[in-house]
Amino acid sequence: MKRWKLHLRTGTLRSNVGSGIYMTIVWVGLAASTAVRTAQAAVTVNSTLLVLARNAAAASDGTGVLQGYGIPYQVVDLSVASSGLPQLNATPDAGNFGGIVAVSSQGYTNGDDWNTALSDKQWQDLYRYQEAFAVRLVRLNAWPSEKEYGVQSVGGAVTADQPIAITNAKEFASANLVEKAQMSTPNLSKYPAKITNTTLATEIAQFGSGTSTTTAAVINKFPSGREQQVWFTTFTLDRTSTTLLSHAWIHWLTRGLYLGFRRVYLNTQVDDVFVMTELYQTGKSYRFGVNDLKDHVTWMAEVNSKLPAGSSYMIELGHNGNGNIEEAVEHDYDNEPALCDPQEGIEYEDQIDGPPEYIKPIGTGKDLWNKKFRSYTWSTRCSNLDPLYVYLSATANRGNYLHVSHTFTHEDETNATLADVRKEIAWNQEWFKRIGFSDPSFSNNFSPNGLIPPGITGLHNGDAIRAWLENNITYAVGDNSRPVLMDVASRKSPFHPIITNVKENGYDGAYIIGRYGSSIYYNCDLPKCVNDEWKAIAGGTGDFNAQLEYERSVNTKYLLGLRWDPYMFHQANMRVSDTSAVTLLGKNKKWSLLMAWTEAVVYEVTRLTTFPIITLKHDSVARAIIARKTRDECSPSLSYTLATDRKSITGVSVSAANKSCAAEIPVTLPGDVVDAGGSRKEKVGGDPLTVWVKLAGGEKAFVLGSGLKVAEN
Ligand SMILES: [Zn+2]
Question: pTM for this structure?
């Protein structure tokens, strides 16, 4: 049997243990599961979480952030007549669940209406199970109870806004939440409490501020050794407070040792780079310039210097190469001889776009590209007539941004022909070759397999998708605001991509990853424009600062909820160099709309957490999202072994229903591993360490040399 030695430095899990103490971990590669039993101690616990939900809506509120981590769980919907508790343990020495979450989304009227969902005997069964296997319980949306939690209700249920904040994160330090960072909770059911039994209850979160505070959550430690974390508020996934506070209970419940992975990825994609945009209301054409790009380089450096350790934010530009040719031609008329051949970009009659969900019959539509455009002939001298091209082709500048295709001319692809889309893709690839982006030395910044479809069209056009795939475009972004596009039956989770199929998309095999829009619209360059448009088309109220407040609240929730879908912006949103200073977010300076949105969102995430914020380029974020799907479909599992006194975890074993899983399985540990024995380690900033395990047909086990404490004394 091959063995690897690992050393885990305990840090966040056991604050009483100095950082200099190392835990010895020995990885054991197992050819057969029988070896697990002979190699390890007798008491084992499957780490899968048991989620007890009053109804289906409650189940999704309890599991949404777990899906972001990829932590295995099993839901019991107690509103279904035949439901009941599953078997908690097969034998006295084999537990089936590593944690229990009781979640609800129903308001309380008369005390604990969980009594209608679970009998007292069932609760006792759960408690005995907890005691036997040192398994923790989390109760969300609980009504304050002296007997059960050591607290009393203070003034009954409230929905009016009261800030909520973590006050003591010591027992879930690996969650990396900022103590005392408040969040508002309008229209969220809350049951303010006060602790009456300080032996039983320790406060971990508060409602209110100043001298007017009440208890929002406690940790209970019973004399029997049983432990529970209890929240006196509803958890509902459409709230930032829920996605944020979910990290508190997940890390406490798992003790920071779980099958899964937590990372925040933020990609702000700027479409229409090189083309002109007709602005809202004025109808004027606008195209950003070199100074706007320079100002954003300076600004990105400033943002990165303020983000938590491990962060790396970078803007991604979605290019339309034909916009460069059109600009170059404008500067070429006085040249003799002309530098551009032909002395024109691609132009065609105005398109009738049609509804974006139109399913185009294969082979239909009319070519818009003039037949005279047979191959790409413009020279670099021609392209260089455009200062934007000169700037971005310089090695020193291009690496400050990420780059991806938005097609050559931005032809709408709803009804486009195979011939046109082939050119739209291939000519932009030729343009990328000439500007140097597709050079292998630039692969960290360029996404050769990605596409931002113009107006997110073509996703029901089999000819378009065929042309993408023929040209190695395998990843396209979709639009999360279009249910027809994103809510398809084959997509089992919002954390997964869609794979196109003939019936719905016209062609098999392209990946569509989600993308978020915002109220920073494509046709605005300045705050007034975008604020006017927000009010006119989206019922927005308030000034641009209010609009940023809205964007902050909507999008922080997605980032904290571990959604990795990129965000949509456009080139006009990067206008900054020739603007006047304005006061936004309390700072008087020159702002682009992109800067304002990004600062509103990322600094909110860093106010609440110390999570690093990382940009993955288009192809990499697509691969990360596809890997989530692959992992989930392998049904990975983790079980751990308890010492014979059941007071510490001594070993961990990773497996899956599909042991030949193509994806690596992440195991996150509450400490630093010095030697991962061949498995890939990933540790960024203050985020916990993840060891990526390749199963390769068998289970993988590791032994924690000095154990991970799970019980007091
Ligand atoms: Zn566009």
Answer: 0.93
